[in-house]
Amino acid sequence: MSGEAELFTLLKGVSRSFYLSVRFLPRRIRMAIALGYLLARTSDTIADTNQLPPAERIEFLKRFLGSMSNREPGSSLDLAACLTAQADGPEKVLLANIDRVLDGLSKIPPAHRELLNEVLAKIIRGQTLDIQRFESKPGIFGLADDLALEEYTYLVAGCVGEFWTKICLLEWPDYARLPAEEMLGFGKDFGKALQLINILRDYPLDLKAGRSYLPVPNLEQVALNPTLVRPEWERWRQRASGYLEEAWKYVIAVRPWRVRFACAVPVFIGVRTLDLLGDASENRAGIKVSRNEVRGLMAWAAGVALFRFLEPSAYRTIFRP
Predict the structure, then answer these.
(1) 3-class SS shares of the chain: helix, strand, coil, % to 5
(2) Beta-strand (E) ranges in 139-269?
(3) What is the CA radius of gyration of the chain?
(4) Please, are residues 34 and 7 in contact by the beta-carbon 8 Å criterion?
């Protein structure tokens, strides 16, 4: 594998909505953003390889992070145990090509590599905490309180919004119509919103696996009767909606139109996903926006990216306040 085309072939395999938007990014940031996604997806795959003992996965995560910051030319990262434990599919293909992905780091500016190392360290910290919290002993466990969930969503996703913002501020001094600190805050909430949506959508499956990211008491009773969690689930759905409002402020402040488009797509898909989740009579797995509707949302995102006068119409149509 070599070059951007092969990198994006891997990206297409392991993503859905992200691939749709990132390929439109300007060249000056596209490679770093794509590499960041692939590296984060790799660490996520390692963390989720449940066939391996928790301590072994944590060691693999440490080794993986070290290979990013201290990689020698021609060196190889041994993920054979993780690779063997994977079912055939795009994640296995990604693990098999991880050395080539890591080689891509040499093709981006040093400042971009530094930001990638910073964000991956946070992501892997979050994934390590995840393993330690939920897999230390048998049984069903949940996060202790709101602060623990906020910390988790920041470490695995909110920091990605900060990374995105920092790399864009490096490349465009006039990146946004708002101050840098305000954009960093909105970027953090942007990432947290998307992670909360994943948590809400996957809650039934996570509960069956013995974990609750929502901080609820009496988890044994909740496991037997998941409807008990609905009020808490709805509270966090509303919080995710509030974070998406912050993400919208981020989108309309961005100046480069290609970046504005790439940011608008996940916001619009996220808003629609929250609507679908809220409309469902019960928490169930498998709820997602259809491909046809995604295309319509992409058209709205393109309109907002190119024509600022469409922002009020897009807001009313997508957010339906």
Answers:
(1) 75, 0, 25
(2) 141-142, 211-212
(3) 20
(4) yes
How far, in Å, CA of 93 to CA of 47, rounded? 16
User: What letter represents residue 309's amino acid?
Assistant: F
- Looking up tokens 């297409």 gives 12
User: What does the alpha-carbon distance between residue 19 and residue 226 come to, in Å, rounded to a whole number?
Assistant: 33
Q: If DSSP codes are grouped into helix, strand and coil, which group holds residue 177?
A: coil
Residue stretches of the chain with pLDDT short of 50:
1-2
pLDDT tens-digit profile of 180-206? Answer: 999 999 999 999 999 999 999 999 999
Which CATH number does 1-125 carry? 1.10.600.10
Please write the tens of the pLDDT for every residue from 53-108: 999 999 999 999 998 887 766 667 888 888 898 888 999 999 999 888 998 998 89
Instruction: Say if CB 81 and CB 97 are below 8 A apart.
Output: no
Provide the angle, in degrees to the nearest 10, between the axes of the packed helices 27-47 and 54-69. Answer: 160
Q: CA–CA separation, 232 vs 215, rounded Å? A: 8
CA nearest neighbour of 268 among 249, 244, 237, 292: 244
Strand-pair partners of 211:
141
Q: First CA to last CA across the chain, in angstroms?
A: 47
The first and second tokens of residue 270, run together, are 């996220």
Assigned token pair, 230: 């609905």
How high is the pLDDT of residue 1?
A: 41
Would you list the domain boundaries of the chain? 1-125
3 state DSSP class of 253: helix
Q: Which residue has the tokens 């609905």?
A: 230
Q: Of all helices (H) and strands (E), which one includes residue 268?
A: helix 257-279
Pairwise CA distance, residues 263 & 115, whole Å: 19
Residue whose tokens read 């609507």: 275
- SS3 state at 45: helix
